[in-house]
Amino acid sequence: MFKVAVIGASGLLGRAVVDELVRQQTWDVVATAFSRPGPNTVALDVRDTRAIGQFVEREAPDALVIAAAERRPDVCERHPELARALNVDAVRAIAAAAHRSGAWTLSISTDYVFDGTHPPYRHDSAPAPLNAYGRSKLEGEHALTETTDLGCVLRLPLLYGPIVSWAESAVTSLVPAIAAAASAQGEAAAMDAWAIRYPTFTPDVAYVIRQMLERHAEGNAIRGIVQWSGDEPMTKYEIALRLAHALQLDARLTPQHTPTDTTPRPHNCHLASDRLEQLGIGRRTPFETAIPQVLAAFPWRGDTAA
Ligand SMILES: NC(=O)c1ccc[n+]([C@@H]2O[C@H](COP(=O)([O-])OP(=O)(O)OC[C@H]3O[C@@H](n4cnc5c(N)ncnc54)[C@H](OP(=O)(O)O)[C@@H]3O)[C@@H](O)[C@H]2O)c1
What we know:
The protein is built from 10 helices and 11 strands. The chain is of the alpha/beta class. The chain has a domain at 2-162 and 200-232 and 269-285: NAD(P)-binding Rossmann-like Domain (Rossmann fold), CATH 3.40.50. Bound molecules: NADP nicotinamide-adenine-dinucleotide phosphate. NADP nicotinamide-adenine-dinucleotide phosphate (NAP) binds at residues 8, 10-14, 33-36, 44-47, 67-69, 71, 86, 108, 110, 137, 156-159, 168, 170. Its cofactor is Mg(2+).
């Protein structure tokens, strides 16, 4: 059986990838976690190069998917050393161990490697990150491509999917504010109507990753940089309107037409997905279909727990 190691399997994307692979029953999956170990995960701190080497040697996977990262832009801005350790050094260490054992490495990157001024962006467009998160992820891309020729970077935009807390995705993190703006005493909630995002459903990304793993298993490993994105442009204000509708909440939401973030964020980083599409890879679930599934699996109970 083809063996896949999913590094960071306790996160938003990692869980979706494991679910997709385990459902197939044709993959041998080894999943790692850090602060949130589960019954079927192996503990691994990706800042520990020796532990990575031992893990790869012991498990001898045919492929590794790196979903471990520090993905919160504000945290990366405040703690650049943590961003570097997780988003750059860990990628290099995992790719080096994978290279030694002849395994293919898929590393996940972000649309934030671009400055958002000239969309759409192709896989070979010039990156120009605006913030510490984007800079660290771009360095992580270089770390992968410099370390192994049997590797691939998959750039993704804003993700949402099955969650274990509202804060896990920048889409569902809007729900507590929407609910507060729907309560009798609540004030109207201002929502960003400036930045254009392409929310992308994690089960669709997991499907794409599975298709990429199949190419490798067939002896046609995809190398270099590829991108995958949903195709529905939305501001956070528009996302919030759709969430309020799905939750049947009569929330007072006001559009905020100028950015207010302290961490600079790009305006529109639409990622062209043509390289994967030309390989016959891809799936897009419409937002209107996907978001009710997410909300049904993690119902709003009027709490404000993040
Ligand atoms: N979320 C988005 O909107 C988005 C958009 C574009 C690209 N991406 C990229 O997609 C990838 C997955 O992101 P995500 O949203 O799934 O992130 P996430 O939900 O924050 O998950 C992060 C994962 O990293 C693990 N991790 C953190 N510190 C670790 C350490 N020291 N050692 C080992 N594992 C550690 C976490 O494990 P524990 O939880 O067990 O500690 C968790 O499994 C990242 O590369 C991210 O940059 C995300």
